[in-house]
Design a protein that fits this description.
about 35% strand; about 30% helix; 6 strands; six-stranded mixed β-sheet; alpha/beta; extended
Length: about 160
């Protein structure tokens, strides 16, 4: 037969388990967020017009992998916005003549996702980094690397949106 202290300990453990900690194991996308407005990302780099390619990649990834509808701001349940913090190219392989053979583009983005109805941040100021390689001998260039890198960033953002918190 359990002792009195064992009974209290079991009761304390049960109460703790039942009270929970306020977190849910459900995906954020399972909540009642059905639509999203995606603001064109800001660009903190000196490279021009990157924000349009990144925003396009994010929209395509959301349409491809989620059930969210992309709508205008007025009709959206949620808003996704952010900023390109850095885009850097790094040469991986050079020829003996110093011509680039293979290179890499790394992108860092900071973003937030907010429930527009409540004003509550779903994801707040999260930083994502991704990179992609391109091969000059296959007629790829820095632009190719940037686009691939943006697609990788978009995938990471959607993964975070679907993450169980």
């Amino acid at each position: 037969m359990p002792s009195r202290s064992e009974k209290y300990l079991a009761l304390l453990i049960l109460a703790t388990l039942l009270s929970g900690c306020g977190y849910t194991s459900r995906s954020l996308l399972e909540q009642n967020v059905r639509s999203i407005y995606i603001k064109i990302f800001d660009n903190e780099t000196f490279r021009r017009d990157l924000e349009f390619d990144l925003t396009k990649a994010i929209k395509e990834e959301i349409l491809l992998r989620t059930r969210l509808k992309i709508v205008d701001k007025k009709h959206a349940d949620s808003i996704l916005f952010g900023s390109i913090v850095s885009v850097r190219e790094r040469v991986l392989i050079e020829s003996p003549d110093a011509e680039v053979i293979e290179s890499s583009v790394s992108t860092a983005v900071r973003f937030s996702w907010t429930d527009q109805r409540t004003g509550r941040a779903i994801i707040d100021k999260y930083k994502v980094k991704a990179s992609a390689e391109f091969i000059a001998t296959k007629n790829e260039d820095v632009k190719t690397g940037e686009i691939k890198s943006f697609v990788n960033v978009a995938r990471k953002i959607v993964n975070l949106m679907e993450r169980d918190w």
